[in-house]
Every structure is written in structure tokens, then in C-alpha cells.
Amino acid sequence: MNNRKFSAVYPGSFDPPTNGHLDIITRASRLFPNIIVAVTDNVNKRHIFTLQERIDLLKKSTENLESVEVLSFSGLLADYLEKINSFVLIRGLRALSDFEYEFQMALMNRKLNKKIETIFLTPDQSYTFLSSSMVKEIAMLGGSTRDFVPKCVELELKKRFGNR
Ligand code: PNS
């Protein structure tokens, strides 16, 4: 682990990964030599894809980005960062509505481990309205998710929900 290149960590539940997530990963990969996409279960959310399914979808969606690793963790993010000795967190900020939650999380993570710095990246404006929960709702209600998610995610949603 200590030989790892300097890494920034992009944590999330990614249920499912969206084009907005990929946009953030791509932007982050231009700024840092290595990006760890750290997938976990969000205890406040109900997930439709298992942790392993989300990892597989993210691996497939990022296979063209050499410096991106997809890993998983459980427990506190602050503890995970200590374990892998990486203290830069990436989070996406789509709109002002994200700010309160993200600000609280950044400060709490720094309270838990003072070495942690959170860097916010804004996605392309065409993704500012996009969220995993909306994608799930569209799929569950039979709509097409083609414009919102990578191809492999679209196919998986179709298998699960028989949506357009
Ligand atoms: O994509 P999400 O669901 O908005 O990501 C939130 C996530 C998973 C990054 C956050 O819930 C998290 O860090 N969970 C791990 C447990 C933890 O450390 N909780 C305290 C956060 S201050």
C-alpha cells in the first residue's frame, strides 16, 4: 500500500454509476496521478445493486482510464483513508442543494481525521440535474436511462426492470 502512487479517493455508493460520476472521475484523473473510486454501502440508502455489482459496473465504465482503480471499503471513510494512507477526497458538487450535505460531510471527515482534505469538482453543466436516485426511479417506472448512464449500466437496469 505504501508504494502506491499519490492517490485521490472518490468515495460513493454509485447505485448506479451515472455519466455524472464518470465526468467527475475523468476530471479528477486529469488532476491526480491515481484515482481510487471507493465504493461502499451508504447506510442511509437502499441499494438496488449489490456492492460487487456496483464495483463491476464501475470497472467496466472506467476501463479506458488507466489511472483509475475501483476498490471497496466498509466502515468509516476516515478510517479507510488512514488505512490506505491517502487523504485527498474528491466529491462532486452539482448545485447549491448539494452543498449543505457535502460541507457537513467534509467537515465531519476532517474532524474524524485532520489529515483529510475534500476537493469539490463540478460536473459538466449538462449533468447538474442527474442523480442515481432519479435514474433508478426512471428505470423502475419503465423509462429509458440511455442518456444518463454508461451502456453497461443501461443494460443492467433493463435486465432488472425491463424498462425501455
Ligand atoms: O454517493 P453517496 O451515497 O452520496 O456517498 C456517501 C458516502 C458513501 C461517501 C458516505 O455516506 C460515507 O462516507 N460513508 C461511509 C461511512 C462514513 O464514513 N460516514 C461518515 C461520513 S461523514
Task: Provide a quick synopsis of the model.
42% of the residues lie in helices and 16% in strands.
Remind me, CATH topology?
A: Rossmann fold
- Stretches where pLDDT is under 50 for at least 5 consecutive residues are none
Provide the helix percentage: 40-55%
* Count of individual beta strands: 5
Q: Using the alpha-carbon principal axes, give the shape.
A: globular
Structure in words:
The chain has 164 residues and is an alpha/beta fold. The protein has a single domain (8-127), classed as Rossmann fold, CATH 3.40.50. 42% of the residues lie in helices and 16% in strands. The chain is built from 6 helices and 5 strands, in the order βαβαβαβαβαα. A 5-stranded parallel β-sheet has the order 3-2-1-4-5, sandwiched between helices. Helix 1 (19-31) links the parallel strand 1 and strand 2. The termini are far apart. The model has no long low-confidence stretch (mean pLDDT 96). 4'-phosphopantetheine is lined by residues 11-13, 40, 42, 45, 76-78, 105, 108-109. Residues 11-13, 40, 42, 45, 76-78, 105, 108-109 line the site of 4'-phosphopantetheine.
